[in-house]
Amino acid sequence: MFQGSIVAIVTPMREDGSVDEAALADLVEFHVQSGTDGIVSVGTTGESATLDVPEHHQVIKKTIELVRKRIPVIAGTGANSTSEAIELTRAARELGADGCLLVTPYYNKPTQEGLFRHFSAIAEAVDIPQILYNVPGRTAVDMLPETTARLAGVKNIVGIKEATGTLERIRTLLELCPDDFAVMTGDDATAMESLLAGARADISVTANVVPQAMHEMCAAALRGDRAAAEAIEARISSLHRTLFLESNPIPVKWALTEMGKMPGGIRLPLTPLDAQYHATLRDSLKQAGAL
Questions:
Q1: How far are the Cα atoms of 8, 18, 165, 189 from residue 202, in angstroms, in the given order?
Q2: Could you tell me which CATH number the domain at 4-226 has?
Q3: b/e per residue, 230-258, with b = 16+ CB within 10 A?
Q4: Is residue 161 annotated as part of the catalytic site, yes or no?
């Protein structure tokens, strides 16, 4: 159900920080027409941490309406409170999301057993396909492959976005988890190799700015065509680095503004991209054909 290049879409904002639904409509259409295989709405890149609950629901609702069932929409519904995650996941199901992405609980640092019980409780409470999301660089907790393998047997849990950024972790998950469990990468820099190794999707930041190239690279890797994938990757690989010159989504929002796709709004505590990085990121966008 979920495979290929899945964009972790930004939430476009006006300069005053208000959500810009017209720009969101343009971005969604840009992705659909460019071949993007799916959209994650209100994930980390979508500034989930600073959208209030009504905004969270509205952005997901609007994205689903704009997509019109042409590609899957996955709603970011994770929280470090199990009850809050259940509420957000239930709301996303009612809004018509095709699946939900649930980040490991951040800040409170649960044990592996706590992670298992947290995700099991959400899966048991809400009947919708659920993708786990492991990103220890942001959450201060690392869900180990053995825990993920346990969760792979829980009804409604269909995959994981693994964002540790190592091929070794992807390979371990592929070995431990059943074939019908979708191992996905959340690290653009290792996405090509991950897909060639057997991962099914890249939930991507880079796809925000070069959606067609990311779709084509992922498609080539999924069919085992290393040469074709490497040819595309050579053109866009610098973006995997420059889009993280500062904390995501600071650089990607600046890039989309530079491309004329949306205004430059971003919410505190995040700030606009420091001027010292503008030329470097602009050069990467030009090399990739985005400018």
A1: 9, 29, 12, 10
A2: 3.20.20.70
A3: eebbeebbbbbebbbbbebbbbbbbbbbb
A4: yes
Rounded CA separation 95/230 (Å): 39
pTM above 0.85, yes or no: yes
- In the predicted structure, residue 1 carries a pLDDT above the cut 90: no
CA separation for the pair 222, 3 (Å, rounded): 9
Q: How many residues are listed for the chain in this entry?
A: 291
58 has a pLDDT exceeding 90: yes
Check 161, 261, 277, 286 and give the catalytic one: 161
Q: Active site includes 107?
A: no
Question: Of 1, 71, 77, which is closest to residue 38 (Cα–Cα)?
Answer: 71
Give 248-260 pLDDT, tens digit per residue.
999 999 999 999 9
Catalytic residue of the set 62, 107, 133, 155 = 133
Look over the chain and give the mean of its residue pLDDT values, rounded to a whole number.
Answer: 98
Specify which residues 103 forms β-bridges with: 133
Residue 289 neighbours by CB under 8 Å, 6+ apart: 210, 213, 235
Nearest partner of 105 among 141, 62, 159, 66, judged by Cα = 141
